[in-house]
Amino acid sequence: MLVGFVIFYLLLNLVVGWWASKRIHNTQDFVLAGRSLPFALATMVTFATWFGSETILGAPREFVHGGLLAVVEEPFGAALGLFIVGAIYAKKLYPLPVLTFSDYFRIRFGNLSEKISALVMIPSYFGWISAQLVALGLTLHLLLPISTEAGIVVGALLVMTYTLLGGMWSISFTDFLHNIILIVGLLFLAYLLMDKIPDFQVFINKQPPHFFQFTPKENTWKDWLTYGAAWITIGLGSIPQQDIFQRVMSAKNQQVAAKASLAAGAMYLTIAMLPLLIALIAVRLYPSLLAEDTLLIPHLVLQFTPYGMQVLFLGALLSALLSTTSGAILAPASVLGENLWKPLLKHPSDAQVLKVIRISVILVTLACIWMAVERQNIFELVGEASAFSLVSLFIPLNAGLWWKRASAMGSHLSMLLGLGVWAYVNFMAPTDIPAIWYGLGASVFGLLLGTFAWPKTRTDG
Question: Which residues neighbour 55 within 8 Å (Cβ) at sequence distance 6 or greater?
Answer without folding.
Answer: 74, 75, 78, 272, 275, 320
